[in-house]
Amino acid sequence: LYVEHPLGEGQTVPLNRDQAHYLFGVMRQAVGAPVLLFNGCDGEWRAEVSEAGKRGGALRCVERTADLRLPPDLWLIFAPIKKARTDFIVEKAAEMGVARIVPVQTEYTNADRIRQDRLRAHAVEAAEQCGGTFVPEVADLIRLDRLLADWPPERRLLFCDESLAGPSSDFETRSKGEPWAVLIGPEGGFSPNERERLSSAQFAQSVSLGPRILRADTAAVAALTLWQQALGD
Ligand code: SAM
């Protein structure tokens, strides 16, 4: 269970209404029941239910069962698509392990806002399902030109470009060293202006995800898989 509260031996962790409903209403847990907790920074803890109510309750931390496992310092940047497929991308990125998820508005992106809280909830749920100890940050929607203008100098950008075609790029030689980000475009691809801007950026290099054009949600999973295969991380 993910909680936004410090975890440590003997620490009491209050539960909100939703958490109490889930633990006591849905999972039928009672006082004394063991629950595994994480908060994204203190690792995983075994706790016990110390108070159970309809509108809340509390847990008491007993012992640390796993250290914090940080994902690679990789950002996934993607243009939001339809709601369910955007949720899918966030969920899969959290499962596969990225440090930060950045929804980006490109010229051909239809969405002009996102529900950051909802996407964050998907990331939390994915981490809970996978026994993770870390939840990636979900950034607010940012325009691509703005993101590129303020790009951190040390981070390199792998720009997934379906026009390269051919076999998938070698992520291994491209991904050594620096912190990285992977950029996936929207359903309509990148505009000529954006292509130009990305091709001329010192920090960016284009990569192919294989000979076929993938849907953006498939492309996100394929890019993270190639990354993981190359770095084992
Ligand atoms: N431009 C195409 C179009 O409108 O028909 C398709 C865009 S594709 C659905 C969405 C994004 O997925 C692309 O912008 C790219 O970032 C990524 N992508 C899909 N297939 C790819 C491939 N084979 N290699 C690299 N990137 C790919």
Write the SSE topology.
Elements: E1 12-15, H1 17-26, E2 34-38, E3 44-52, E4 57-66, E5 74-78, H2 83-96, E6 100-105, H3 116-129, E7 137-138, E8 142-143, H4 144-149, E9 156-160, H5 171-174, E10 180-184, H6 192-200, E11 204-207, H7 216-231
Parallel strand pairs: 5-6, 5-10, 6-7, 6-8, 9-10, 9-11
Antiparallel strand pairs: 1-4, 2-3, 3-4
Helix pairs in contact: 2-3, 2-7
The protein binds S-adenosylmethionine.
Q: What is the CATH superfamily of the largest domain? A: SPOUT methyltransferase, trefoil knot domain
CATH architecture field of the largest domain: 3-Layer(aba) Sandwich
Global geometry: elongated
Strand content: 15-25%
Order of helices and strands: EHEEEEHEHEEHEHEHEH
Distinct small molecules: S-adenosylmethionine
The residue ranges in which pLDDT falls below 50 over 5 or more consecutive positions are none
By CATH reckoning, the class of the largest domain would read Alpha Beta
